[in-house]
Every structure is written in C-alpha cells, then in structure tokens.
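Meet the record:
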Amino acid sequence: MTTTHRFETENIEAGYDGTIILNDISLVVPNNKINVIIGANACGKSTLLKTMARLLKPESGSVTLDGKDITQIPPKKLARVLGLLPQSPIVPEGITVADLVGRGRFPHQSIFKGWSKKDYEAVTEAMEMMKITELANRNIDELSGGQRQRVWIAMALTQQTDILFLDEPTTFLDITYQVEILDLLTDLNRKHGTTIVMVLHDINLTARYADYIFALRQGKLIAEGSPSEVITSELVKEIFELECNVIDDPVSKTPLVVPKGRYHVHV
C-alpha cells in the first residue's frame, strides 16, 4: 500500500482564543516515512498536529492534501485517507476491545449496509498486528495503559488509511511499552508503507525511530531533516535549551543525546 499522497502546510498560523501558537509554518510531509515532531513543552507540537488533522482551524494559511484544502474534503472521505489518534482519547463506557477496534471501520460503511467481509478482515488484521486478539472480549476499563494504547492504535489501523497521525502515543507508558508501541508502528510503516506523523517527547527514541524530524521552537519550525541532520548538540541546545553531547547510539547507530547536568560534568 505504498502511497503518493502529498500532505503539506503553507504559512499556517494557529492557536486558541485569539492567541497565536504557530507562526508561519510551511512543511511537506515525506511519503511512506515515519515523521516525528519534536520540541520543548508548549512549543506548539500538538497544536500543529491538530491543525494538520483538521481538529483546529488555522487563523491563516492552508493545510492541503493532494493540492486540495482539507476543509473542502468531506469528513468521511478524509477519514478514509487520514487516521488520527489524539492525546488521552475518551473511552466509551462499558465497551469491549473488539467493539472499539471495530469503530475504525465507520468511514468505509454506509447506513444501508451491514458489515462486509473486508470490515471483519480489517479488524482481525489490526488486532493481530497490535497483538491484542486475546483481549477481544475484555472490557477496555480492565486493561493496562499499554494494552489500551495498543487497542486505540488498532482502531486507527482498522481505518486502513494511508496517513496516520498520533499525538504522543507513548506518553505515560513505561519504557518497555514505549519501545513495543514504536516497534509496532514501524512494522506498520514497513509492511504497508503507511505515512506516519507523530509527536514524541523522548528525543533519543525519536532519533531511533524517525526517518524525518520537524523541530519546533516557540511556535516556529526551526529545523527539519533526518535524525543525523537535526539531532546535533547545537540544534538540541537551540530547541530545548539543553547543553549536551551527541554521540553514536551503540545499538541503533543513530544520534544519542547525553545531557550535561550541573552535577555530572567532569572537567
């Protein structure tokens, strides 16, 4: 399922209640890649993702998919191309894993038809990919944080979209679950060619898993490129105001940020 969709923003400004958070951001999302948005807290990462996903209307500028403003694309049609996993999604009360995952098929269904063979196959494949098949009949409320996150991602996968947005999919998870979720998303990207755009806080996990990085500082896009281009000691200091050394990760051979705390620098 290798795609050629062109997703881009042009000179967007966006914010909340008249306060501008994003300033003149123009970018093109590389197809079939894992793209990560990084930056310090409150720099506009989630605001950018929400604006790109049409959850937030920009004050000016445009967000386009294949040259068409996304505000002009019918919601159901857009949902067949673009999937979204927001931060802290609300769990419907009393719903089972299988029922929640199945809701991802909504964009492909009509009120006049029941479930098709393709619908059932999509749910089965997504649950197998996220390794939650054995949880199908469990109530969402009974699951751990890591299990819930896999269920939400499975629901997004069931949409079978070419583009997937995820807002901090590893937040509040321990390191084992973080690595597992990112490995599973990498499986999705490599198996189906899904274009992934996500917000991550951990810069070293970003360096390991990202093909392409967008770096924000105070609402502006200040750097973009491969991990080796963006994760340098100079740019990390500019993005996060953090003194550090950047070395080669001994496992992945990607950049590894080693912070310089005041108590740990030996002259």
Observations:
- The longest helix spans residues 175-192.
- The chain has a mean pLDDT of 91.
- DSSP finds nine helices and twelve strands in the chain.
